[in-house]
Amino acid sequence: MTDFKNSLVFANELDQQDELSNFRTKFYIPKDKDGNELIYLCGNSLGLQPKSTRDYINQELEDWKNLGVEGHLHAKHPWMPYHEFLTDKMARVVGALPSEVVVMNSLTANLHFMMVSFYKPTKDRFKILIEYSPFPSDIYAVKSQIEFHGYDPETALIQMQPKPGTDIVGIEQYQEIIEEHGDSIALVMIGGVNYYTGQLYPMKSMTKLAHDKGIKVGFDLAHAAGNIKMDLHDVGCDFAIWCSYKYLNSGPGSLSGCFVHERHGEKFTGPRFAGWWGQDKATRFQMGPEFHPIPGAEGWQLSNPPILSMAAIMASLDIFDEASMDKLTAKSRKLTAYTEFLINEIQSENILLITPSDPDQRGCQLSLRVLGSDKSLFEKITNAGVIADWREPDVIRIAPTPLYNSFKDVFHFSEILKHEL
Ligand SMILES: *Cc1c(COP(=O)(O)O)cnc(C)c1O
């Protein structure tokens, strides 16, 4: 968009045209010690607290107080099926069928449980292909699975490489690896949006290329869920996992979402680690020794879930339903494009945007490489009231999130950045 202007008046105009602008008032915006609102650009790391969350959690505390164990059946939102109340809403966020989605466990735990079912290495096909610059937890999980099966990460782990001189991985690079190693790769496990660069990968084409070679595909959507509009069912990957505390604003350490494609859900016969919450609901409380899994993603559940955390997810997903991923995405594209425009206006040689400028290859996050400096620029903008985050060795990540960030926020951010540069 070339008709942007670098002025506070223009930023205010964009806020006035923004039909989602009042969603900001549904959130607590952190303040500095003088009571001024901070410029919070860290929703990619921990989303802000909706003002409604407290009421949703209090409802469960009240029911627990008044009903004790009876709350499992008689709470306003009975705890026994509580996770089911989240399913449709979560399925809308990621574009899946309700039977393909369940909220359970935490993210890395789900990654392991999914690999138990979908990484089944053999002598000839045992490799895992991961993205460039993966999130450390993912790489630890993947390596430990490889070792658990008796293989060596030295030979079994392949990491994609970016185009020379950039941080961006093209589909060509991916395709080359699939062509060269396809017959020996068992699993492709990639972050849908890379946490470091903010690049959104072409998940559907990647899945197709891998499936054509008989490779299973899983996506870690920690940085995609609630950030970009997806159609996971149509993407066709075998599984996906994501957390709810980043763009999904459900509180620190809150539960993870898990997707298992319909084609595996109905009659899955492969390996899985089972628990009683995955047991057929009609017979679960007969407490028998035989495991008969619930069809669909729910069959992977292990434990009865933490209701207080799920109440926070419910509060958040109700806001997503009200806003809709379509409107959020439309605002997000404009807000991030405006942020990019303002950063480019600074024309400093000391910062470099490493996130793709193509809006189809990113969500809201922009990653700024700081050149010829250390962490001090980041510390200066922090002291000036910007909450962003720093990723070693040299990247500042900012995520203008469409639910609660304004055009004015990013304008002020750019003024602070310019000043501190
Ligand atoms: C945030 C994040 C994690 C964190 O995992 P937890 O199990 O929730 O602590 C893992 N992987 C990716 C890609 C992430 O972005």
Features:
421 residues, alpha/beta, Aspartate Aminotransferase, domain 1, Aspartate Aminotransferase, domain 2, 7-stranded mixed sheet, 4-stranded antiparallel sheet, 15 helices, 13 strands, 38% helix, 12% strand, binds pyridoxal-5'-phosphate
Indicate how many domains the architecture comprises. 2
From the N-terminal CA to the C-terminal CA, the straight-line distance is 25 Å
Q: List the ions, cofactors and other small molecules found in this model.
A: pyridoxal-5'-phosphate
Radius of gyration: 22 Å
Low-confidence stretches: none
Instruction: Determine and state the CATH class of the largest domain.
Output: Alpha Beta
| Class by alpha and beta content | alpha/beta
How would you characterize the largest beta sheet? 7 strands, mixed
**CATH architecture verdict of the largest domain:** 3-Layer(aba) Sandwich
CATH level-3 fold name of the largest domain: Aspartate Aminotransferase, domain 2
Continuous helix count: 15
Order of helices and strands: HEHHHEHEHHEHEHEHEEHHHEEHEEEH
Q: Mean pLDDT score, rounded?
A: 96
- The portion of residues forming beta strands comes to 5-15%
Strand order of the largest sheet: 2-8-7-6-5-3-4
Helical proportion, percent range: 25-40%
Shape descriptor reads: globular
Number of strands: 13
CATH homologous group name of the largest domain: Type I PLP-dependent aspartate aminotransferase-like (Major domain)
Structural features, described:
- With 421 residues, the protein is an alpha/beta fold.
- It folds into two domains: 8-49 and 325-420, Alpha-Beta Complex (Aspartate Aminotransferase, domain 1), CATH 3.90.1150.10; 81-321, Aspartate Aminotransferase, domain 2, CATH 3.40.640.10.
- It is 38% helix and 12% strand.
- The chain is built from 15 helices and 13 strands.
- The chain has helices at 8-17, 53-67, 71-74, 82-94, 107-118, 136-148, 153-156, 171-181, 203-212, 232-235, 262-265, 307-323, 325-346, 376-383, 407-420, and strands at 39-40, 101-104, 127-130, 157-159, 185-191, 216-220, 239-243, 256-260, 351-353, 366-370, 386-387, 389-391, 395-398.
- The strands form three sheets. Strands 2-8-7-6-5-3-4 form a seven-stranded mixed beta sheet, with helices on both faces. Strands 9-10-13-12 form a four-stranded antiparallel beta sheet, covered by helices on one side. The protein has a two-stranded parallel ribbon with strand order 1-11.
- α1 (8-17) packs antiparallel against α15 (407-420).
- It is globular, with a radius of gyration of 22 Å.
- The two termini are 25 Å apart.
- Bound molecules: pyridoxal-5'-phosphate.
- Residues 106-108, 135, 137-138, 191, 195, 220, 222-223, 243 line the site of pyridoxal-5'-phosphate.
